[in-house]
Structures are given as C-alpha cells and as structure tokens.
Amino acid sequence: MTKRSVRTIADIARLAGVSKSTVSRALNDSPLIGEETKAKIRSLAREHNFQINAPARRLSMRQSRTIAFVTHAYHKDFSVADLFGLEIMGGISSGLASREYDLLVIHVDPNDTKWAHQYYETGRVDGFILMTSTRKQAHVKALLELGAPFITWGIPQPKQKYCSVTGDNVTGGRLAAEHLISLDRQRLGFIGGPSYELEVQHRLAGYEEALNEAGREIDQALIEHGDFSNTSGAEAMKRLLKKAPQVDAVFVNSDLMAIAAMDAIREEGRHVPGDVAVIGYDDLSIAAHSNPPLTTIRQNIPLAGKVLAQNLIEYLQTGMVTNVSIPVELILRKSA
Amino acid sequence: MTKRSVRTIADIARLAGVSKSTVSRALNDSPLIGEETKAKIRSLAREHNFQINAPARRLSMRQSRTIAFVTHAYHKDFSVADLFGLEIMGGISSGLASREYDLLVIHVDPNDTKWAHQYYETGRVDGFILMTSTRKQAHVKALLELGAPFITWGIPQPKQKYCSVTGDNVTGGRLAAEHLISLDRQRLGFIGGPSYELEVQHRLAGYEEALNEAGREIDQALIEHGDFSNTSGAEAMKRLLKKAPQVDAVFVNSDLMAIAAMDAIREEGRHVPGDVAVIGYDDLSIAAHSNPPLTTIRQNIPLAGKVLAQNLIEYLQTGMVTNVSIPVELILRKSA
DNA sequence: GCCATCTTTGCAACCGATTGCATGAAATTA
DNA sequence: TAATTTCATGCAATCGGTTGCAAAGATGGC
Q1: Can you name the residues that pair with B130 across neighbouring β-strands?
Q2: CA–CA dist B249, B270 (Å, integer)
Q3: Is A7 within 7 A of strand C by CB distance?
Q4: Do domains A66-167+301-326 and A169-299 have the same CATH topology?
C-alpha cells in the first residue's frame, strides 16, 4: 500500500553509491562488475523489491520479449482448433515464461491484412506462433513478406523455409490402423479433416501403409472427410454408415469429431465398440470423459507447446530454422 | 521485403519539414496542430506505412495499454473454468482491441506470490482480469494490497470494493426451476458447484424462490455439490440417484457437469429427458452438440468478455468502480 | 498603426533503461 | 621503480516517443 520510493535503477544507484550503469550491469550479471558490488546491489534490489521497468528496457534493447499467439475469433460452431489451441497455450506459456518471454494473444479477423505490421513493426512482439486455421497459408505469406519471425504448428508448405512443430502424423495413422487390425476388425473406415491438409494426408498415408502391410485392400468408399468440427464428424460418420453399413471400425482424425461420430453411431442403433470400434486423435482432456472413454492417438500437447516456444526463441536468437515432429502414442480406453 | 527507411516520427518530421513534436501531435490528433499540417503528416505516414514504436510510447506515457488475463496451469481434469475461459477470452480480446489495448495471458502458479509485482510494477500491464479459480480470493487480496487495478468475473466479496462483472445468477436459478416446474416435473434436484461460491449460492437462492412461489417444498436431500469439473458432475448425479431415485429433473450448475450427469443417468439405465430432465448452465458451444442437445441457461459470454474489458479500462481512466450483472436467458433444446 | 490575442509550431527536457568508451586504481612485469 | 596490463566503474549518448513552455506569425479591435 505504501508508495514505493525505489522504482528505478537510478534510485538503487543512489542508495548503493554507484552509477546507473553499474546497477544495470550488476542486475544483468555482467562480468564487468566486481563480486562485492554485485552482491550489494542485488541485496539492495531484493530488499526494496525492485522491479525493472519493462518498456524502458524494451526500448533500449529494441526487443519486446513478447510472442504473439495468433488465433481467430470464435464462431458458432465448435472446432478442434479451439480446444486444442487452449490446451497448447498452457505449454507455450510455460515454455515462454521459463525464458522470460510474455505471451500476447491476438484474435485476427480473417479479412484483416495489416495485423502483422501492427504487431511486429510497432515493436510490440518479436515473433508469432501460428496454429492451424483456415487462413494459415495467408498468414504465413504475410509474415514471410514482412520478414517477421514465426513458427507454425503443422507441416510446412513444401519449398518454404520457416520453423515448425508438428505431430508425427504418419506414425499416428499407422498406430491407429495397426490397433484396429489387431482387434480383428475387418472393414476399417477413415474419417479425416480436410483432404487438402498435409496433416490429414500424412495420417491417411500411415494408415494405408499399415493396411497394405497387413495385406488389406484400400477401399476408397470407406474414406470420408470433414472439416474438424464436431458436426462434420457426425455427418461424415452417417455418410459412411449409409455407404458401407458393414464398417466395423473407424479412425477419426480428431477427438471432437470422434465423439460426435460415436453419438452418430448410437443414433443408428449400433454399439461402440461392440459393432463399431472408434479411435480418435489428439487426446484432448475430454477424451477420457466421453462415453465410452475414447481410445485415441495422443499428441503430447504440453510438450508441443513448450517446443513451439523454445524453437521460436531459438530462431530469434540464432536464426536457426527447425522443423521438428513430436512423437505420438496410442492411448487405450474403451472405444476401441 | 525492402527494409523500411521511415521508422520513427523523426523520419516523418524530416520528410514533412516539421519537428518531431508536431508529428507526434498530428498523429495523436491534437487540436494544437493546423488542419493542413495534420493532413500532410497523416498522408505521409500512410504512404510510408508508418507504425509507431510501442515501447517508446509506453515508456513516455508510463502506461502499457496491456491487460493481463490471469489463469492457472491446466490440469489433468477438465473444469468448466477452462472452456468458459476460452470463450470469454474472445470477447475480452475484441473489447480490448477496440480500445487499442493488448491482451496478455499469464498462467499463475498457485504457490507463486510475486506474480502481481512482476507484471504490474514492471509496467508490463496496466491491469488484470481475474476469472473464477480456486485461488481467486488470494489473487484479489494480492492485487488489493498492491493497489493494482483489476476486474473479476463473479460476485465480489462483501465489503470489498473492486470492479466486477457477473451473470445474473439469481435469475438463472429461477429460470431453470420455473422451466422444470412448467414441465410438470415433481422431484427437482440441484447439482451445484462448490457451496462456498457466491455464484452457486445465488443460483440456489433463485431456484428455491421459484420453488417456494410454486408452493413446492425444498428437500435438502435433493441438493448436491461438485467442484465444476465434469467428473464431479457425474459423481454428484450418481449420489443423487442413489439417495433419491424418484428424482425426475435436475438443474446442474454448468454445462460440462450437466453433460457428464446425463451420461451418469444413462449408465443407470434411465433416459434423458424421459425419466430425468436435465438443464445446464453457461451455454458453452458444446452444449448444442451434446447428446441429447442440452437445455441450458445461457450466459452471454461474448458480451461478458466485452464488458469486462470495457469496465476495466473505464476504471483505469476514471477510477469508477462498477459492479454489473449480465442478463441470462433460457435456451430450450432437447434435454429438458 | 499599435497592441493584445489567438493559432500554430519548435525547443528541449523527460520517461528508464543499455552500452561504447574513457578513466583511475590495482596488479603484474621487466 | 617505471611501464604495462587488468579490473572495476562512471560518463554520456541513445532507444523513440510525449509534453510544458516559449516564440513566431496571423488576426483583430480601437
């Protein structure tokens, strides 16, 4: 409650009987400063609960130590990106915090073309994290043109050079297929996100590889696509059940779609997993609480967030472009 | 791609043949500057795509125009606060953006006591937005002691003076009860969040008022509490069904709990809404997609977010403490 | 035609840090 | 003992804005 009188390094300097520069160097642990002086200054700072002024430091160092998490306005329909984004934000935040970076969240209007300038060239943020979204390619293009540092969740476009982190989608698809095969299911269905998404293509590729290796035929009629929203999951499932009623297992590209698909299956009077085994993707927190609890391919979301943060900072500091993929694992529950 | 050469107001000043101060005033639309000069400077700024330097401005004005959204690390179990928080963040973000404020998201470790200093006294943020969380009272105390501006979602503690926005919980409880009564249900149950939460008490109060007015008895055996997590919703429902098997309707304090409660009801071999009608709270996006689609009390979440943002900024500028409540409405779907 | 007033602009200090360079004292070497 | 390094510190410029005050020119009243 008492107004603090020691607010700036100049105040500390006065108390310690040294100059501003010495205080600044001491607090930044510069080797130029003698140990006793450092110790005195530090204890003074601690004693008076000194907090350095961030805007001044940012102006002086010409960097904001702030990263923008780019997302879009939420819409009526619920899509995997939202919940997934929420969970990954926790990992990003902790990764950033451990390097003393702040996390700014910006909701970008799809038609806005100037957002990147407004955040980057004003010095408000040093870099961006892009999640999956319908406008991602446009955003990537804007940032590349601007020369602004960024990292994306998801597979980079071929021939473009920028940082990315993604799950190991091929292995994910393979694990799902292998598990369903090991359950002795005969007619396996695939419900994917949009077919133009590289993630989806990779998952399908892994899935088909595993089928081939097991000597199974690929039946195009058993492949459906949605847009990652839960409604689209239910609809794709219904189409699949109509086209191919004998389907007895399905690999769905997201937990949210999978949960909706299970509802659709029940609505048709069939049982999960008795009649149709269902396997999801992501292992969102809700997967453990669905009915029945969802067997799924876990993406290690907190880890993914942490790596996104770390690799972006790495890039800021060294210019090193990294493209890493995070391992996935099969989580066995009740639905398959 | 080309390095921009016009980066500072000094550059603009040179081009326009005026001084830095004039440019600064012109861009801030100061009445001190002549119209033609203003026009010339503005067109110059537009032409060169000038973006003002935020850290410098913040240092000079001694305010960051940034608000912190305080949340906690996500945990294994999924709680309403998370999804609710996600949805409200969209509203907050748009409210802040329209006043040219930035949104910083900070995940506070429950044992951390210095977070507020680290953000407020460093000048990184001008104020805080607190959502419901187990540590909320501790956070409120910390911020009050620090004299830092903040606003909370939820009912303020009696006798404490700070800004808040909350849903109209009494009316919410009343609407739920009136609807269940109008359905001719006889044995109404109540599953609340933690009983020490004022929100929960108000919802219960509204609910009981409506029962009383309808000439119904309040049966304490039909009242259960959880902690807003989905698991707790399922457990409370099971306890309720065991204690009072004749229950034919239940008002659950959150959508997430309600959805879990519906699963619990089905597990006991009973039907929703045939045997037991269920009504939720919040109208999260998932409510429309549950099985069956959930009848619920809608909190206008985007509006709530916008008002949180606006009232906090209002407080920063005028010191006016506001405590507002946002109207709620009944959303009819299939579960009741 | 002179003085007071109003409008528009510039000067220079300031916000609170960081950092290149100069300097003085202490330690080392010859 | 004198010359040379090394170590620790301070001076002052700088980052890019905002703003109080002075001043110059335009306008108007009498």
Answers
A1: B70, B152
A2: 12
A3: yes
A4: yes
Secondary structure letter of residue B329 according to DSSP: E
The position carrying tokens 């996104």 is: A308
Judged by CB atoms closer than 8 Å, whether chains meet at B105 and A107 is answered as no
CA angle B102, B108, B111 (to 5 degrees): 155
Please, which positions of strand C sit below 7 A from a protein CB?
A: 7-20
List C-alpha distances in Å: A2 to A80, A186, A217, B100: 48, 74, 76, 31
Nearest to B105 among A53, A89, A124 (CB): A89
- Which distant-in-sequence residues (6+ apart) come within 8 Å of B241 by Cβ? B247, B264, B265, B268, B270
The one-digit pLDDT tens for each residue of chain A (336 residues) are: 445 678 999 999 999 999 999 999 999 999 999 999 999 999 999 999 999 999 999 999 999 999 999 987 665 444 445 778 888 888 899 999 999 999 999 988 888 889 999 999 999 999 999 997 777 889 999 999 999 999 999 999 888 999 999 999 999 999 999 999 999 999 999 999 999 999 999 999 999 999 999 999 899 999 999 988 888 999 999 999 999 999 999 999 999 899 999 989 988 999 999 999 999 999 987 788 787 899 999 999 889 999 999 999 999 999 999 999 999 999 999 999
CB contact under 8 A, A266 and B291: yes
- Domain definitions of chain B by residue range: 9-52, 66-167+301-326, 169-299
Q: Tell me the CATH number for domain A169-299.
A: 3.40.50.2300
Taking only residues 110 to 139 of chain B, the set having a beta carbon closer than 8 angstroms to any beta carbon of chain A reads: 117-118, 121-124
Query: Strand, coil or helix: what is A228?
Result: coil
Chain B stretch 21-60, residues whose beta carbon is closer than 8 A to a beta carbon of chain A = 49, 51-56, 58-59
Burial class (CB in 10 A: 0-12, 13-18, 19+), A332: exposed
Beginning with the edge strand found earlier in the chain, give each strand of the sheet holding A277-282 in spatial order: A223-225, A188-192, A249-252, A277-282, A295-299, A328-331
CATH superfamily of B66-167+301-326: Response regulator (3.40.50.2300)
Query: Of A78, A105, A291, which is closest to B263 when you measure between CB atoms?
Result: A291
Whether the Cβ atoms of residue A68 and residue A316 lie closer than 8 Å to each other? no
C1' of D30 to CA of B32 (Å): 29
